[in-house]
Structure formats: structure tokens, C-alpha cells
Amino acid sequence: MAIARPVRALGLAALMMWIFFLYTILKPTPGLVGPDKYKTFERDPQLDPLEEPEGKLWRATEDYAPDAKNPARINATLLALVRNEELEGMLQSMGDLERTWNSKFNYPWTFFNDVPFSEEFKKRTRAATKAECRYEVIPKEHWEVPSWINDDLYKESVKILKENDIQYADMLSYHQMCRWNSGLFYKHPAMENMQFYWRVEPKVHFFCDVDYDVFRYMQDRNKTYGFTVTIYDAPKSIPTLWPETEKFIAQHPEYLHPNNAQLWLTDKTRRPEHWEQANGYSTCHFWTNFEIADMSFWRSKVYEDYFNHLDRAGGFFYERWGDAPVHSIALGLFEDKSKIHWFRDIGYQHIPFFNCPNSPKCHGCTKGKFYDGEPFLQKEDCRPNWFKYAHMD
Ligand SMILES: Nc1nc2c(ncn2[C@@H]2O[C@H](COP(=O)(O)OP(=O)(O)O)[C@@H](O)[C@H]2O)c(=O)[nH]1
Ligand SMILES: [Mg+2]
């Protein structure tokens, strides 16, 4: 018996709907396969075997010798703000970075201090590298508390910060350091001709052999900023940083980059209490004690205007705004997020956090380990959000 054409068509449509229905319920759940598993952080990507980045990499050759006639090095420096008293810690960091990377490429070291470096500091740091060392004093106008900061208000504010257990709140130099690292270091005359820097603190560790020129990597891939670790900030150190940022955006909506990472900055789901206390900012930030970056971004009009806005608002002193949330917010809003790179291959530790990739090139840290054991510290890790709202490259 022949089936009428409309009935056949209906039957076919019903079959297709069934197939679609079955596909919908049986298809793999997002977040459980492929790179999505990293977004939910079922699995730390550092547990997976690591390979070098793809594409052309610049290897150590004689053109990277300290005295090479036509050096392959680009305009870049290792940069450390450090006190004379921190010499031993600085030597520890230098030893690690020289062994794993810089002894192959010989980029210069630039040391900054708010007072002159001692002869001992100079002698012993010079002995720790074949590369050139420069010792720079920060000009007073870059370090001193700006004239518009009211001393009484500062003292009152410190009391509140201390009641809220904000570390270093009563240490004026800490506030000065955060401000300098946010918006002044790249204005030092010694940095005038420099484009890239790698920030190094005393007492940090580098674990993995890195066999390519990371500055050229940044330049060749058109990257602005490289990080290793992201964590949440203490929200009570920055209650008005996000509201001030919102005011700034309202004045300059044109500064927002079309491919920004605002959703990363404003995520409420993972740590809602932080978002509440920071008035709309997740507090997730690049941990800036490590940063490899192109200063062109800090020198841009957008960042200059943003930094000046924040500086005038006074939160570097009346609160304890750190250079980490300030840099991170600026990058997240005003830069193309594809220009921000996770250096997953640079094994790093600043107590208590690690970046320890699973690679035979890494020694002295536990492979795939990010934090120092305690569940509380694990909670501070916000890399999953970066992977979710941005990317893993
Ligand atoms: N020269 C100098 N360096 C400082 C001063 N305060 C902080 N630093 C440096 O700034 C960086 C951050 O300070 P640190 O005490 O490590 O802060 P933490 O990492 O937030 O605990 C380190 O490289 C310090 O050596 C200061 O008053 N003078
Ligand atoms: Mg430190």
C-alpha cells in the first residue's frame, strides 16, 4: 500500500527530530571533554605533558654572547626593584634565572632602589651573571608620596585597613612600591630605550630550563603581557578600585578594547564574596611579582590616563591598591586579550604559589603542582577563570 507523500514527509521530519533529540541528550557535556575540562578545573593543565611553544623560536647562539658585535638580543631587560638588605634573596633569584635561562641569552639586569645600592650589592650581583648590570636610583618625584595625599586621612585609613587585617597596610614604603610598580617604573630615564622587561623579585625560584629567547617570543607573537600565576586579591585592600575604574570607563568608553577580558574581571560565580566586597571586581589578577611585558602598553595614552585617574583618587595610600590588580584590570579592559600569554613553561615560585609544569626540563618542584599543599591556597587559584573567559595560549 502506497503511503501518501505528506505522510512520508511527516514521518521523515519526525525521524529527523528524533535524531536531533538523541544527539542533544547524548552529545558530550561541555566542560567534560577537550580543553573545557580545564575551565571547570577538573584537571590542572600543568599535569599534562608540556612541549615547547610551536613556531619559530630563537635559540642561544654566539650572537647572544654578552659581548656579541651584532647581538641577537632585542631591547629588553631583567628588572628588579630591591633593597640592599635583600641581597641574599636577590642572588638566589638571579642564580635560578641565570641557570635556567639568562646564561644562554645574556639580557642585561637593571636594579632599582629608592636609595643608592651598596658596593657589596653591586659587586656580588655583578659576579652572579655574565650579562651587563645597571644600578639605578629612583628619582624622588617618582617615589615620594604625591602632594595631594592628605596625611591625616592616610593615617585614619591605615587604621581601618589594619582592622581588616590588610598586610603591610601601615608600611608606607609598601604603598609607595605598589604605586611605582603600577605607573612609574617605565618612566625612569634608564628605561627610555627599553621596550620589554621581565620583572624579578628577591627570593623567587625558577625551575625549568627554557631554551628560547622569551623576549623575541613576545615580539614575534605580538604579545603585550606574559604571566605565570593568577590568584584572588584581598578584597578589603581595594574596595573602591573597581568603582573608580567604572567611573573612568564612563568617562572614556572608547578606551575599552573590543576583544577585552571584562567578563574575566567581573566574574561573580566562582568567588561571590570577593566580588561583593570589591564592589563588582572578582579580584582575580595576574601575580605581578612575575611579569614579562611590553612597556608600550604602559606608555600608551589609555594606560597613562587610567593610572593618573587612579593616582588622583588616592587609593594607593587610602587603600592598599597593588600593582597586580591595577595592571590586571588595565590589561583586561584596554588590551586585546589574545595578546596576553600564559607562560606555562616557565617554572616559577614566589612563596606560597608555584607554576610547575610537567616537563623533564623542570627540576626541584613537584610536577603539576600549583600551590603549597593547603586547600585554602588552592581556593586562591583563579586560573580556571582566565581559561574560561580568555584562553590558554
Ligand atoms: N628598594 C626598595 N624595594 C622595595 C621596597 N619595598 C618593596 N620593595 C621590593 O618590591 C618587591 C615587592 O616587595 P615584597 O616585600 O616582596 O612584597 P610582597 O611580594 O607583596 O610580599 C620586592 O622586589 C622588594 O624587594 C622599598 O622600600 N625599597
Ligand atoms: Mg615578594
From TrEMBL:
Regions that span the bilayer: 7-26
Family annotation (InterPro entries): Glyco_trans_15, Nucleotide-diphossugar_trans
Coiled-coil ranges per UniProt: none
Keyword Glycosyltransferase: yes
Keywords carried by this UniProt record: Glycosyltransferase, Membrane, Transferase, Transmembrane, Transmembrane helix
Domain of life: Eukaryota
PANTHER family, sorted: ALPHA-1,2 MANNOSYLTRANSFERASE KTR1, MANNOSYLTRANSFERASE KTR4-RELATED
Similarity annotation: Belongs to the glycosyltransferase 15 family.
Protein name (database record): Glycolipid 2-alpha-mannosyltransferase
